[in-house]
Design brief:
The protein is built from six helices and no strands. By secondary structure, it is mainly alpha-helical. Helix content is about 75%, strand content about 0%. The two termini are about 15 Å apart.
Length: about 140
């Protein structure tokens, strides 16, 4: 399946609203600060929308309109690095640059990214055939 831009956005929203919220809540309870992790999740979602648009544009230059899995992993690393650099060096509204240590951020981001990636690559494609053949679009 080659997702459409709308399909990427809908899938990102669905997976972050389920898996992302659960993991973010766990991290928030562990660090005893629920607000900052949820703000970070929101920024990951917002920057991800722009990232997906760029990603979709870049795909138009490939003959099959898709990237190998290794490129998808690299895109996830770049997205996480971008959010961390923006939080730490530029500053994002509502999040002090020292609000979350790098180890906590990377464990939260990596676990959310890895679990959503696995779900999108396996169970969603297997269980939701309509989703798979409609470019990842839910509605």
């Amino acid at each position: 399946m080659t997702p459409t831009l709308l399909g990427r956005w809908e899938t990102r929203f669905f997976l972050l609203a389920t898996v992302g919220v659960i993991i973010t809540l766990i991290v928030g309870l562990v660090v005893k600060n629920v607000v900052t992790p949820f703000l970070l999740l929101g920024y990951v979602f917002l920057f991800g929308l722009a990232w997906d648009a760029l990603y979709q544009y870049i795909l138009t230059f490939r003959w099959d309109r898709d990237w190998p899995t290794s490129f998808q992993v690299l895109a996830g690393v770049v997205e996480g690095a971008l959010v961390w650099l923006l939080v730490h060096y530029v500053g994002l509204p509502g999040i002090p640059s020292t609000a979350m240590p790098f180890a906590v951020f990377i464990s939260m981001y990596a676990s959310i990214w890895l679990i959503t990636f696995i779900i999108a690559q396996g169970p969603l494609r297997t269980l939701l055939v309509r989703w798979r053949y409609q470019g990842g679009e839910w509605f």
